[in-house]
Predict the structure.
Amino acid sequence: MNLTLLSAQAMLPLLIMATTIIVVMMAIAIRRHHWWNPLLAVIGLNLGLVSIFSAWLAGPQVVTPLFLVDGPGLFFVGLTLITTLACLTLVHAYIDRYAENREEMYLLMLTAALGGMVMSISISLVSAFIGLEIMSVSLYGLVAYTRQRRHSLEAGIKYMVMSSASSAFMLFGMALLYAEFGSLDFPSIGHFMMQPDRKDIVLTMAATMLLMVGFGFKLSLAPFHMWTPDVYEGSPAPVGAFLATTGKVAVMAMLLRMLIIMPAMRSPAILIAMQVLAIASVLVGSLLALKQSNIKRMLGYSSMAHFGYVLIGMLMFWQPKTAFMVVAVYLSVYSVTAIASFGVIALMSSAGEARDADGLQDYRGLFWHRPLLSSVMTVALLSLAGIPLTAGFIGKFYVALAGMALGQIPLLVALFLGSAIGIYFYLRTMIALYLRAPGMRGYDAKLNWGAHAGGLMVLGVAGLVLLIGVYPHALTWLIERAMSTPQ
């Protein structure tokens, strides 16, 4: 296939991101500077965001058999860039007092984001897996970046082992698909699956199940979730935000595209498996979060439940536009909320300390020291709980509509039970913010936290959580435009 100017225009966000990585790498090699190096990364991310509109104007473009650059793919590319930009601003203040090299953290984050962008527009198992591994290998380093901390190094090793195992499952599934169809791109596999004379479906079902196991690990869905709390606890706080948002948005985008294009992913057995995964993730994640005294572990278990909710919306794949709307709304809502909650932890913490301020006791009485920061945390927790007038309520409302359209009572019961249980552990954390703190505080945010880029970003994200909760039309309009074809 010949590459054209329209193809180059469609791939502009990825080209800019790849160029940014090279520029930042060269800048670090020339001179380490904790202001100019991250500034180059921020400029590149913003240029990538601006270029998305140009790529959208090019219309849907098939760029080689590996990529389909269309509206839905570009939406997830944009969401990946936005969450990366938000997490990168948190890193700057967090790692400022780190005794060892700091600049590589930005480089790893950019590389992981590039992998996520590749996954978002992939229509081939080859490019999707390459993007997945680019992101995963970068996350190994990010999770264990503060290696002088025992829990951080342990988290990095656990994530590497579990991620490698899940990649092995996915590779085995891809090999079985190639053995049966002789192709690895989604449209070709989907075409072969639709042939009426196909009778041998054993390899197809085995391959699809193996892929689902791999997705379960990557998304920390129950029962493939055992790595999640330890990795979230051991990761630096900005990396936890990155892992919960960018690290999972791209995987969800890839899974949604596969469900829509490949008929085997829509077989009754796979549907039942996805329903079981969704129900188990919502209930297990919510129940395990109940007794957590570590906020990062609680948010890790909470992410299980939230991606169980996303899976409920994804079951609407037989109506692609509806499925994309529900998944896009919920991922957008969860991303801004997760960044707000992890952002507060990052502003309270420093890579130079022995651990992050992630214990519930560290936030006891925060309101009396940092009232604005505790208000941000309150808004984030209310949104995670799905309380009306917050963005989280809008996300759960869309998922509930999808559950009712599916007519699956167990999914709706799991949704409401998970939400009810979630109110308890979110309110438990919230109440601690307003209790009087006995004695001196070991951890506290800087007095001028709101003047830093990370502080301003967290305040902006908290405002966005409230804005989406009160006026969701702007978000839904943007998603509808992503689904439409430019004239």
Summary: The CA atoms of residues 121 and 168 lie 22 Å apart. The chain has one domain: 5-483.
